[in-house]
Design goal:
The protein is an alpha/beta fold. The protein has two domains: 165 residues, Periplasmic binding protein-like II (D-Maltodextrin-Binding Protein, domain 2, 3-Layer(aba) Sandwich), CATH 3.40.190.10; 196 residues, D-Maltodextrin-Binding Protein, domain 2. The strands form five sheets. Strands 1, 2, 3, 6, 16 and 17 form a six-stranded mixed beta sheet that branches.
Length: 445
């Protein structure tokens, strides 16, 4: 296959210029195109005033930049895209890339879609950046490592819209490092909340873990979450005000073995000791759900379809319950996560890869992805168009959620701590001390 050709001048101009929502015009290799754009801008300025003139000029600049990209392209444009292996993601991405090719039908595209989980994207990319996908979906906690490795193309210029203006502030901030945007926000729903069957539980029942387990025992059903997982376990300790943070060298600070942490650990043991409580992973939870033995469970939007189908008219969702800490009802916290679309800095076709990434994350595409996958769009206008109990629950929980920023030494000790608490450890101070020692151990150089 022939290779595309994007001139060095065009690429440099695109990276150097900030279109500010399709703002200033990129440098053009063609003087005729420059003259045309200038005439268009002059006409807009003389016939319209204020914002209308600015918008017209911005649109002209965007059209010019895309026209330049098309004019500078020779032969087939090869782009490899990685996204979730889930069928819904694979299908909707295929539909969107087909529409992208239709929109730019003057160009011969060869877009291939690979199945790489967002959670595994960083590790897969850093195995060999040159061989990795040109465009990929990844989780927000991977931004720092990808930027430090030089794997992400900075979003210093845009073609069709400005991600900083259309997406939620939290997603833009999470995609930004040292004041530079390195990815296009895609979803704002990588968090967790409580699914429940309202035919069994009332709103009062699901307000606290104590009420929830008591009602589950009475009703002969099970409730639960995966306590032996640092992602979920964090919610208890953070809710009570305990600290977990990451240093510049990716080591961690953690005070979970404090007096408050000890009280939290005791509360977790109290909850998990209920005969109605189960600490299981999603796969086992879905099996229990389908067997009709799971009345409530902490999970995320990726399981919406299963709970909605099984609970039927009783399908409901809400923020996480409170839990008792030294006699005080304490709201459980959580992690709030986002998914981004990134462009490989070593992409074979950087310009087209960036335009594709923009297309996949614009308002229309985010809405399509949200409807297909039940995930919440980062785009604020698209998010407002989706009516979902799960997303409403996630929004309610977001007030108590933190972005996941933690070093790798956290996960194994946290998992072990969670399992120890589920197993009913008798020396809670000892297991907390061991966990904190592992979480805060120095990072090996």
């Amino acid at each position: 296959m022939k290779k595309k050709v994007i001139s060095t001048v065009l690429c440099a101009a695109m990276v150097a210029s900030m279109f500010a929502g399709c703002g200033n015009k990129a440098a053009d290799n063609s003087s005729a195109a420059d003259n045309s754009a200038a005439e268009s801008s002059d006409a807009a300025a003389t016939t319209e005033a204020g914002d209308t003139a600015a918008e017209t000029e911005a649109a002209s600049a965007s059209d010019d930049a895309i026209a330049n990209l098309i004019a500078s392209t020779d032969g087939t444009v090869d782009i490899q895209l990685w996204c979730s292996e889930l069928e819904a993601y694979q299908n909707v991405m295929k539909e969107l890339t087909d529409k992208f090719k239709e929109q730019y039908s003057d160009v011969d595209f060869n877009i291939t879609i690979g199945a790489v989980s967002e959670a595994d994207a960083k590790d897969k990319i850093l195995e060999d950046i040159d061989a990795a996908a040109d465009v990929f979906v990844f989780a927000d906690d991977q931004v720092n490592d990808l930027v430090n490795a030089g794997a992400l193309q900075e979003v210093a210029a845009t073609y069709t819209y400005d991600p900083k203006e259309t997406n939620s502030e939290a997603t833009v901030a999470a995609a930004t490092k040292d004041g530079k945007l390195y990815a296009y926000p895609l979803t704002a729903s990588n968090g967790y909340f409580l699914y429940y069957d309202s035919n069994i539980f009332s709103e009062e029942d699901v307000a606290s873990w104590e009420n929830l387990t008591a009602k589950a025992e009475e009703a002969g059903t099970k409730v639960g979450m995966n306590v032996a997982d640092g992602w979920y376990l964090y919610g208890f300790f953070s809710g009570a005000g305990c600290e977990l943070s990451m240093n510049e060298d990716n080591s961690n600070n953690c005070d979970w073995n404090s007096e408050t942490g000890l009280a939290v650990a005791q509360s977790i043991e109290n909850i998990t000791s209920s005969p109605a409580f189960v600490s299981v992973q999603d796969q086992d939870a879905i099996t229990m759900l389908n067997d009709g033995t799971l009345g409530a469970y902490v999970s995320g939007t990726w399981n919406t379809g299963s709970f909605e189908a099984k609970y039927g008219d009783g399908y409901a969702a809400c923020k996480l319950p409170t839990f008792d800490v030294n006699g005080t009802a304490t709201q459980m916290g959580s992690y709030a996560g986002y998914k981004f679309v990134g462009v490989n800095s070593h992409a074979k076709n950087v310009g087209w890869s960036m335009l594709l990434a923009e297309y996949l994350t614009n308002e229309e595409s985010q809405l399509a992805i949200g409807n297909a996958t039940s995930e919440g769009p980062a785009n604020t206008v698209a998010a407002a168009q989706i009516d979902s109990p799960a997303l409403a629950a996630l929004a309610a929980q977001s007030e108590f959620a933190d972005q996941q920023v933690v070093g790798n030494n956290y996960w194994d000790p946290a998992k072990a701590l969670g399992q120890n608490l589920v197993d009913g450890a008798t020396d809670l101070q000892a297991v907390l001390d061991d966990a904190v020692a592992g979480i805060t151990q120095p990072v090996a150089e």
